[in-house]
Write a structure and sequence with these properties.
Layout (H helix, E strand, L loop, with lengths): L5 H19 L7 E2 L2 H4 L6 E8 L3 H13 L2 E7 L3 H10 L7 E2 L4 H7 L5 E4 L6 H10 L3 E4 L7 H16 L4 E3 L7 H11 L6 E10 L17 H6 L5 H4 L2 H4 L2 H11 L5 E7 L10 E8 L3 E9 L6 E8 L2 E6 L3 E6 L3 E5 L3 H19 L7 H20 L3 E2 H5 L15
Helix pairs in contact: 1-13, 3-13, 6-7, 7-14, 12-14
Length: 413
């Protein structure tokens, strides 16, 4: 997952390390490595052996947070590219025989039986098969959003998580907003009725051009298979398109507040960027139960304004949320809330702590999965409505067997 905004990245860079050290620096206790069967039990002082699948920018950034937690040790890694997996392996002192490359590198990692859990930070197209393989191998799964690029992929993730729970394995999807106390309190109050009946809402994801650093790969119109994979954020087939890969943040908050899936969607989307197959702007009207209308729009093109917001308007008040800003309720029963700080980092830190606590205490409810499936399907619903140019129902989406399949020709297995 990448929130591709210069303003967002600047704030994350400025606040990330300082905020982390302030909040969690004292939490790194002395841990020992124990056998996997004990890790999956109640050994709270055990170091969980990790394998990172996807050693790119977000993966290596996240690995640093896992390392700082103190309850993990990296013992294996996989990435399509040799240079990435070697750089990561050298940094975390991973044996060379536990560094794997190619599209099937994750299979080799799991076959080595060197890990208790895997972190999946690859292009979203690969998430369902990699998560399923992790559960099949008997390891815990920490998965980036979005969980999948199409409906069959979402259903696969749902099935993998159910299987994980039955096998006493943890399966966590890494959304940051759901971890923050202000978000949690505000959403709880709305669901208790503090703003009255909700009649409408709005969600927006507004930022500048994304993945522009990869535009030069396309200059001659003959991009190599490897560069096509490196520029996966410009591929609808690999990423799910912007509405799924990034805009999901605000649509996840909307479905969380309403605690419902939409019944219908009508929308449009357009492309302005000169390369790739993703869209730069989206506009979708969702109809939710109770005749609640949600207006969603996004742009990832142009400069000068950035915001990730979700608001819901009720008969007695309004809930107002911003990923890199504040959360509050105004109206008859106000909630002051406040600034959420560096949610990008702090939310990940919280999820990493929860993942460890769930594994070592034997909690396998895997409660992050169902809402992730719902919000992922909501984004796909908007994408399908824009493609169709006509209303799309939830039933149509739920029953869809349509898949997004990228061109992997020329890539090494």
């Amino acid at each position: 997952m990448n929130i591709k905004s210069s303003a967002v990245k600047d704030k994350a860079n400025k606040l990330g390390r300082r905020q982390f050290l302030k909040n969690a620096g004292a939490a790194a206790l002395a841990f020992t490595i124990v056998e996997p069967q004990l890790v999956r039990g109640s050994a709270a002082n055990s170091k969980i052996k990790l394998g990172l699948v996807g050693c790119g920018g977000r993966g290596t950034w996240l690995a640093d947070l896992f390392q700082k937690h103190g309850g993990y040790q990296f013992t294996a890694a996989a990435d399509y590219f040799q240079d990435k997996v070697d750089a990561f392996g050298e940094q975390y002192k991973i044996d060379k025989n536990q560094r794997f490359t190619g599209l099937n590198g994750y299979k080799k990692l799991l076959a080595g039986k060197a890990v208790d859990a895997i972190i999946i930070q690859t292009p979203p197209y690969f998430h369902p098969e990699q998560a399923a393989a992790g559960v099949e191998a008997g390891v815990h799964v920490y998965l980036a959003k979005p969980i999948a690029v199409d409906v069959p992929g979402c259903m696969s993730i749902q099935q993998s998580a159910q299987k994980a729970g039955a096998q006493k394995l943890c399966f966590l999807v890494d959304f940051q907003t759901r971890t923050h106390p202000f978000y949690r309190e505000a959403v709880k109050r709305v669901q208790y009725g503090d703003i009255g009946k909700i009649v409408s809402g709005e969600a927006a994801y507004l930022c500048d051009a994304t993945w522009s650093q990869y535009y030069p790969f396309f200059e001659n119109g003959n991009i190599s298979p490897e560069n096509r994979l490196r520029a996966w954020g410009l591929s609808r087939e690999l990423s799910g398109d912007v509405i799924t890969e990034q805009n999901i943040h605000v649509l996840d908050v909307a479905t969380w507040i309403l605690d419902e899936h939409p019944l219908q969607a009508t929308g449009f989307s357009y492309r302005y960027r000169p390369v790739g197959t993703c869209h730069d702007t989206n506009s979708v009207i969702y109809t939710f139960p109770g005749d609640v209308l949600l207006t969603f729009h996004s742009k990832q093109f142009g400069k000068a304004y950035d915001d990730l917001l979700c608001r819901m308007y009720g008969a007695n008040g309004v809930i107002d949320t911003h990923y890199f800003g504040s959360v509050s309720i105004s109206g008859d029963k106000p909630f002051k809330g406040g600034d959420v700080g560096n949610l990008y980092t702090d939310g990940a830190v919280s999820n990493i702590a929860d993942f460890h606590a769930n594994i070592t205490s034997g909690k396998y409810a895997n409660t992050t999965v169902a809402p992730s499936v719902r919000s992922n399907l909501t984004t796909i619903m908007g994408r399908l409505a824009a493609d169709k140019g006509a209303p799309v129902s939830w039933e149509e989406v739920s029953n869809s067997q349509a898949t997004l399949t990228p061109d992997l020709t020329g890539l090494v297995l």
